[in-house]
Write a structure and sequence with these properties.
The longest helix has 53 residues, at 87-139. Strands 3, 4, 21, 22 and 23 form a 5-stranded antiparallel sheet that branches. Strands 5-6-7-8 form a 4-stranded antiparallel sheet. A 4-stranded antiparallel sheet has the order 9-10-11-12, with no helix packed on it. The protein starts with a helix and ends in a 6-residue tail after the last strand. The protein is built from 8 helices and 23 strands. It is α+β, with helices and mostly antiparallel strands.
Length: 482
């Protein structure tokens, strides 16, 4: 057979050489086998339609081989070199998984877009309300000025019949009327005597004294009492169930001394910080500045001081000083051995392991360590480098109290975060390194107080009570001389 094939090949080649027009080529068929093809000109036909050719046939053969490879890959054919059984199904599974991820991300983006659109609509509605209110006030006629008239004879008769009618006009003004009609007439007549503003202020101070406290409210002393909570605003959504609001006692340009800051502390990614020009704008809910923090914030222990936000980075003992003017991190440092992310929180939880605050003496951190076995540790920090300057260890467990705050170097703890009527039950003085029990009444008006801090700027306590932003007046005793 091989001899015959050789003979045929030799014969054809000889014939092709004789005519100088015979060609020989080879290529694969559909099954992938090699075929040899010889072309010899016809002695009869001068020409015929040319279909295919060696190049076209070779291309067809390679396409056929590619189709076979693709079909084997889709079917998971293990006969292909380098391809294991089920690789096609695995590729399809990976593609499907990638598709599912893409769809999930698209849905998340769509949800975020819808949320932002809702917030935008809410802001637009509030802006429209403000515009209408502005128009209403603009169109409202000014009240007519009532000309001043001398006191009526009837009033003079009444006053002349009372004891002490011979006193000066100021004394007559301070005389308490016996009827509502008398009160109205006296109030009108007060403007006949000079310096009415001073007279009203003098009367208010006389009627509302502050016995036993700092009359100028600028000195330091021990806490004597806490006033009733004053509500300023309720949070807009679930992210504001607990949070932080604060005011810089030493504000730095471009922000003024009345600037207030708010952070809603619920959520997987707490990064937004809202700024308000003053307390009125905070109460209305119209921020003038929104900052995006570079690192996630943990819990409600942040504070502002000298133009920087001080906060604990999420799930770590790292403290961050964020410069508000440049909107960048100015310093970072670990608080040595401090517990974090639920090791030593306050009794209400919330990952409140590290609580930062500011008072007349500077920047403080309240926390605990394994060495202290859960007892409260107080450290005074360097506001520039965040390094620890000095530390004090108390004998009261951190998770046994609801919250704490520092005034004039003295740390005070609150007994309960949920009881409507509770007490400030303990005080530790860093100057004497001594602690003592207290029983100062304190109210959680809304039943879930997650943040209580002393505001040096306003000399009040700031609180965040179950969605509500509140404040408390405080009264301090006079500083005892050494």
């Amino acid at each position: 057979m091989f001899a015959l094939l050789s003979f045929c090949l030799c014969g054809l080649l000889m014939r092709g050489e004789a005519q100088d027009r015979a060609t020989l080529w080879r290529g694969n068929d559909r099954g992938g086998r090699c075929h040899y093809t010889f072309t010899v000109p016809s002695p009869v036909e001068s020409s015929c339609p040319q279909i295919g050719g060696p190049e076209v046939e070779g291309l067809k053969a390679r396409l056929n081989l590619l189709e076979v490879l693709v079909s084997q890959l889709s079917a998971g054919d293990s006969r292909l070199p380098g391809v294991q059984q089920g690789s096609g199904a695995r590729v399809q599974s990976e593609l499907q998984e990638a598709l599912n991820r893409a769809v999930g991300e698209r849905n998340l983006l769509q949800s975020e877009k819808e949320r932002l659109e809702r917030e935008l609509n809410g802001l637009q509605l509030r802006m429209e309300e403000m515009r209408r209110e502005t128009e209403r006030l603009r169109n409202k006629p000014c009240p007519q000025q009532t000309p001043m008239v001398p006191p009526s004879p009837t009033l003079q008769d009444r006053v002349s019949k009372r004891p002490g009618s011979g006193l000066n006009p100021m004394s007559r003004l301070m005389t308490r009327p016996s009827r509502q009609e008398d009160s109205s007439n006296l109030r009108d007549s007060a403007w006949q005597y000079g310096a009415p503003g001073f007279q009203e202020l003098k009367a208010a101070v006389t009627e509302v004294p502050a016995p036993g406290g700092n009359e100028d409210n600028t000195g330091c002393g021990e806490l004597l009492s806490v006033g009733e909570p004053v509500t300023h605003r309720k949070a807009d959504n679930i992210a504001g169930k607990y949070g932080i609001w604060m005011q810089d006692p030493e504000a730095v340009s471009p922000y003024g001394p009345n600037m207030l800051w708010r952070i809603d502390a619920i959520g997987a990614e707490v990064k937004q910080m809202f700024g308000y020009e003053d307390l009125e704008q905070l109460s209305k809910g119209f921020p003038s500045k929104v900052l995006l923090l570079p690192e996630l914030l943990e819990s409600t222990g942040a504070t502002v001081y000298r133009g920087s936000l001080y906060y604990q980075r999420r799930n770590s003992r790292t403290l961050i000083r964020y410069d508000l003017a440049s909107e960048s991190v100015a310093a970072r440092r670990e608080l040595p051995h401090a517990g974090f992310h639920g090791q030593f929180p306050y009794s209400w939880g919330g990952y409140t392991d590290i609580d930062l605050s500011v008072d007349e003496n500077g920047l403080w951190a309240v926390y605990s360590t394994n060495k202290a076995k859960g007892a409260i540790v107080i450290s005074q920090l360097d506001p520039e480098s965040l390094g620890v300057k000095k530390s004090w260890e108390t004998n009261i467990r951190k998770n046994s109290v609801a919250n704490s705050f520092i005034i004039c170097g003295k740390m005070y703890t609150v007994a309960s975060y949920a009881s409507r009527e509770t007490t400030i039950n303990y005080m530790y003085d860093t100057e004497t390194s001594q602690g003592k029990n207290l029983a100062i009444p304190f109210k959680n008006k809304y039943g879930y107080n997650s943040m209580i801090d002393y505001s040096l700027a306003q000399r009040k306590l700031f609180g965040w009570d179950n969605f509500y932003i509140v404040s408390y007046d405080v009264r301090l005793g006079r500083q005892q001389a050494n």
